[in-house]
Please model this.
Amino acid sequence: MEQLVDFWNRLTSIEIVDIIIAIGIIVFFRIFSATFSYMIIRIFKIKSKKAKEIKESAFFKPLKVFFIILGIYLAIVFLKAPLKINDQVMDIVTKTFKIISVIEFAVGLANSFTAKTILGKKLRKSLSQKMDDTVFEFVLKITRVFIYVIAIFLVLAILEINLTGLIAGLGLGGVIITLAAQDTAKNLFGGLVIFIDKPFVVGDWIEMDKYEGTIEDITFRTTRIRTFENALVNIPNAIIADASVTNWSKMEKRRYKTNLCVELDTPLEKLELLKTRIEKMLQERESVFDDSIIVRFDQITDNGINILIYTYTNSVDYASYLKEVEDINMKIMKILNEEHIELAYDTKTVYVKN
Model:
């Protein structure tokens, strides 16, 4: 209570002019924070001429916050003598200002390393021939984590925390941390395997175990898959690294295969004509690989004569593949109708003894 009374007495004893000047410093930096940020970014980005591009810079907002905090800090420094603020309190204020400055700089620097920023786009352009988008995103994430780790160490140094003692303390609890982080370590290693082997990238359609869908994101710990039911599944990287993954997006061609079973009494001449017409129809399709076409009378069954039709099409995605299959089947049925060839049915003859 006495301390509050003492502070109030000191506050009322200082001249109004000092208070006005301190408030003026805060207001000045608040009003011109955007202008100062713009000027600094403009100095370091000589090639940038557009104001919109400068304001969208990753450092613009952190710099605004910095100048606002700077104004508050300078106002407190100005009032130190009139308010008779002791060195202990000023030390806390100074450390707080330094910590906020480090954090804002780290945020601005980390935000510069994203795919949407100017720096990120330049890096992507320069590395376009060396790595794909997924690996590039992973490198950016690692860079951001590294920046924040350095910022944490700088904050600890400002707080004058003994890093040697802290590391030693972590060593004492290393066994507990290791046991607790086993799964995390496995997932991190699994993520590293995914990025090195590159069995899939963001946007690929994959199938594994009971999951099938499109890859939306690959993080340090998990991989996100958007299923065809539109559900989002987060799968630990350790599971994916040990699983058999089918990447349907890597298909260069897709197989078409069907069996036509025609009636047993179909004349051989008609069979030959049917084969010829089907083979010609497939050869005329631009989506079909000619060297993969097989149309053969391969076996005689109890119900009829089987003709194997086998080929590959360049319609890879599922929707276009189904359309391609439908078109081929429709043309085959048309040929059967034109040649008056009937398909055989599964029939059984039952004899009834009186």
Summary: The mean pLDDT is 79. The two ends are 119 Å apart (CA to CA).
